[in-house]
Amino acid sequence: MAAQTVASTTNSASAFPSASVADTAANPVDLGPAAALSCRECGHRVPLGPVFACEECFGPLEIAYDFSGHDTEELRRRIEAGPANIWRYAPLLPVPADVADKPNINPGWTKLVKADNLARELGVDAGKLFVKDDSGNPTHSFKDRVVAQALEAARAFGFTTLSCSSTGNLAGAVGAAAARAGFRSCVFIPHDLEQGKVVMAAVYGGELVGIEGNYDDVNRFCSELIGDPAGEGWGFVNVNLRPYYAEGSKTLAYEICEQLGWRLPDQLVVPIASGSQLTKIDKGLKELIQLGLVEDRPYKIFGAQAEGCSPVSAAYKAGHDVVRPQKPDTIAKSLAIGNPADGPYVLDIARRTGGAVEDVDDAQIVDAIKLLARTEGIFAETAGGVTVGVARKLIENGVLDPSLTTVVLNTGDGLKTLDAVASDTGLTATIRPNLESFHEAGLGS
Ligand SMILES: *Cc1c(COP(=O)(O)O)cnc(C)c1O
Question: Could you tell me if the CB of 238 is within 6 A of ligand 1?
Answer without folding.
Answer: no
